[in-house]
Amino acid sequence: MTVKEIFETMEYGPAPEDDGPAQAWLDRHGRRFGVFIGGTFQAPGKTFATRNPARGTELAQVTQGTEADIEAAVTAARRAQPAWARLGGQGWARVLYAIARLLQKHSRLFAVLETLDNGKPIRESRDIDIPLAQRHFYYHAGMAALMEDELPDRVPVGVCGQIVPWNFPLLMLAWKIAPALAMGNTVVLKPAEWTPLTALLFAEICGEAGVPPGVVNIVTGDGATGAALVSHPGVDKIAFTGSTDVGREIRRATAGTGKALTLELGGKSPYVVFEDADLDSAVEGLVDAIWFNQGQVCCAGSRLLVQEGIAEAFYAKLRARMATLRIGDPLDKCIDVGAMVDPAHCAKVAEMVAGSNGEVHQPGTVPAEGAFYPPTLITGLEPADPLMRDEIFGPVLVATTFRTPAEAVEVANATRYGLAATLWSENINRALDIAPKLAAGVVWVNATNLFDAAAGFGGVRESGFGREGGWEGLRAYTKQAAPPKALVPVAAIPAPAAPKPGGLDRTAKMYIGGKQARPDSGYSRPVWSPKGVLLGHAPEGSRKDIRNAVEAATGAASWGRTTGHLRAQILYYVAENLSARTEEFATRIAEMTGSRVPRAEAEVSAAIDRLFTYAAWADKYDGAVKPVPIRGVALAMPEPVGVIGAFAPDDAPLLGAVSILGAALAMGNRLVLVPSEPFPLAATDLYQVLDTSDVPAGVVNIVTGAHEALAKPLASHLGVDAVWSFSGADISTTIEAEAAGNLKRTWVNHGRARDWMQVDARSFLAQATETKTIWVPYGA
Ligand code: NDP
């Protein structure tokens, strides 16, 4: 090409990055890697090839980690953990800082190796992946230094099993390892089969950074290696990033084991463009939203929603911009779109698009060799089309239109996922009105795909649970300092051989949608006092009662939009009305449980205090403004979880129920409460208190019955967003396993006791909220 021609076309010339140093590093290792355990690379075992997807060439042979490797890695991590924990915050900070420095020093090597292994453009690995990974280690070096002062009652979880996908191999490693080490944990990490190389380079620099042997262990391999890590009994926590299907399997596999679990899963994130948006900026944002990393991004803005009036104009601009995207060798610094991670994945995306019923637009040509797929826009699809609903995980944008803001919200939220959402509008009122209405863990206003270590990232619904980044991510790598005691189950009082005459028969009902309701089963069970007096009957709840209660709770969604001030007033009112009936409740508890009246009075008094505490918190559990390094801020907004199903404890039948109710309602949730199984009447007596305290119908629903029988219907119900259990019955495993259906959050006791007189309000409030991170432009 002549200079004149270049001036005429303004085409970029090639600007290839030298991959020599990365190839030399591979050569130094003989292009064969063993697993990294206890601070050293082991001799390679059975290996598989990892390839450059842009050229199809083999880069190295990597070991397929076996169960024995996982065993050795977990043992090394366990052995190293106490000494690492003793090092303390300042000690961890120094090591994390050293890692960050070394990542910076070797950043080009990491970037080139990442691009070779994954196929992503060097521009992205060099300017985004590696700098963000460094930032994560710097940030968490700071967290480690602050941890002892800021989280004095928390200690490390122990050994963390961490599993990451192939789309951001080093960045996902950083998201996992930095917070774990910053809180005194040790780790066993399994990189993705297609992209293990930067994790192995990271292992190498761990020694240089002074990471003690056994603190970081890297076991390469496929899904079977991951499954072995998940099921290893020596692992205290699993942190997983990957597909929703595998996340669901992991939820089931860890059910009942007591392992802590965080899941960052897939998405089908909406990208909403209002007619008052800056269309050129929105088009540029869309390039980042869906063609960054070839669309292989969990939070990719893969579902475009454009307001009808501007749709054609917007599509025209988008098509014009698509025509200028440069596709090709990812090591070329001018390239916008590189190779897909693997030919198999590329073929899967191609197959999905080939079956499309819409209008497919694919400008430009892709290189003949290598796993390349062109940027794609599909319009004209029905809302129910699989391509509109399912994650494609490639450079494929599906588009539809909407007419009103309300319709935009409805269409945006019509998905089983809830990872991220983007909205574009020059109208600040509109943007700030819509952001809270989007069901997503992260919302970007007039920007997209912004990430930072200080800002929590994670999803709701089937996009998983837990946050990575910020204080919210950090807490997930800690546990409470004092281990809880084992729960002593409380049995119901059996029917006496010779019942004593009681007063009038009092058969309680359920409380559903603000009304008392008979059980669907038509059965109830007697509640006896230890003295042999029949105190009343409690209904035997069933699946249908749970269904009705969840429906009522679903219908009361407006509770989540009330102000904290209003919710506080109502909780104070409940407390006031309970206080007026202290004697009646204390007598009831004493009769049911056989405890002495002063003790029962103390429980009622504590229940009133608890309501006051949560009323106080209702407008004080505030969010945060995260100082992210952009021209903007990230707001961390606590939002209600939604519908919470909860099993109350037996050892404090009123106080336990009220503690759950207070926390859930204070944060704007609706509740389906199953009271203590042996002592249900303390909760059924609450109906009148609730009726006279302005609690709206459907916000609290109470279904009595056998916990074992109700655990499955409540935990598997798709309308329930979280399940808590403080039950004396052994239902933790059932709840965790059944919750896998819609990946709802769970908080269960695993047979551990709790002192209900001393409840840590903050842990309840954290369970009663989801943190939504909203990125907004702000300042200069
Ligand atoms: P997978 O879920 O298939 O794999 C993720 C990781 O889990 C890999 O290391 C994989 O090993 C391993 N794995 C596979 N099966 C099992 C198992 N049964 N038990 C334990 N580990 C297992 O996802 P992909 O690697 O295909 O990544 C793409 C998916 O990840 C997308 O759906 C995307 O949305 C999601 N993702 C989510 C992110 C988030 O933050 N929410 C971020 C990035 C991706 P192997 O590589 O051998 O298959």
TrEMBL record:
<comment type="similarity">
    <text>Belongs to the aldehyde dehydrogenase family.</text>
</comment>
<dbReference type="InterPro" id="IPR011408">
    <property type="entry name" value="Aldehyde_DH"/>
</dbReference>
<dbReference type="InterPro" id="IPR029510">
    <property type="entry name" value="Ald_DH_CS_GLU"/>
</dbReference>
<feature type="domain" description="Aldehyde dehydrogenase">
    <location>
        <begin position="46"/>
        <end position="479"/>
    </location>
</feature>
<dbReference type="Pfam" id="PF00171">
    <property type="entry name" value="Aldedh"/>
</dbReference>
<dbReference type="InterPro" id="IPR016162">
    <property type="entry name" value="Ald_DH_N"/>
</dbReference>
<dbReference type="InterPro" id="IPR016161">
    <property type="entry name" value="Ald_DH/histidinol_DH"/>
</dbReference>
<protein>
    <submittedName>
        <fullName>Aldehyde dehydrogenase</fullName>
        <ecNumber>1.2.1.3</ecNumber>
    </submittedName>
</protein>
<dbReference type="InterPro" id="IPR015590">
    <property type="entry name" value="Aldehyde_DH_dom"/>
</dbReference>
<dbReference type="InterPro" id="IPR016163">
    <property type="entry name" value="Ald_DH_C"/>
</dbReference>
<feature type="active site">
    <location>
        <position position="264"/>
    </location>
</feature>
<keyword id="KW-0560">Oxidoreductase</keyword>
<feature type="domain" description="Aldehyde dehydrogenase">
    <location>
        <begin position="532"/>
        <end position="751"/>
    </location>
</feature>
<dbReference type="GO" id="GO:0004029">
    <property type="term" value="F:aldehyde dehydrogenase (NAD+) activity"/>
</dbReference>
